[in-house]
Structure formats: C-alpha cells, structure tokens
Amino acid sequence: EFEITPEIEFFVLACDGLWDTITSQEAVTHVREKLLQNLSMKDISYSLADLAIRSGSLDNVSVVVTLLQDRSSIT
C-alpha cells in the first residue's frame, strides 16, 4: 500500500519478468522518454515490456503504465 501524492506522475504495475531485468529508475527514465515522444500509454507499456525482453528476461512480462498527471507537466 502506498499513498498517491500530487507529485507522482505515473506508476508502473508489472510482474517480476520486468523487475528481474529492469531497475525502477530505468523504468522511470524509459517511460519519461516515451511520454516526451508522445507515445500512447499502450505503446509505452509494450515498449517497457520489450525492453525487459531485450535485457534478457526469460519470464513472462506483463506491464501496465498509468498516467496520473497531464502529459504537459512531465519533463
């Protein structure tokens, strides 16, 4: 359980197939880059899963990225 505060821009809900190969900071950086490229949330989620697979994940990889703020506020 955690509190969603105003400074939280988005969250990444994923299984261990992602977290076994990608750090939380790598995930944040990746999502921010893709948001700045105006990718859809669906495409960002797919992209993050693909990054885990390319990084060597052999497990199933499920990812959902949820935006909590307006895109224009993310830098």
Automatic annotation (TrEMBL):
Organism: Aphanomyces astaci (Crayfish plague agent)
UniProt-recorded name of the protein: PPM-type phosphatase domain-containing protein
Cross-referenced Gene3D superfamilies: PPM-type phosphatase domain (3.60.40.10)
Location of the PPM-type phosphatase domain: 1-68
Signal peptide residues on this chain, from the entry's feature table: none
Highest classification ranks of the organism: Eukaryota, Sar, Stramenopiles, Oomycota, Saprolegniomycetes
Transmembrane segments: none
InterPro entries named in the record: PPM-type-like_dom_sf, PPM-type_phosphatase-like_dom
Origin superkingdom: Eukaryota
A Pfam family it matches: PP2C
SUPFAM superfamilies, alphabetized: PP2C-like
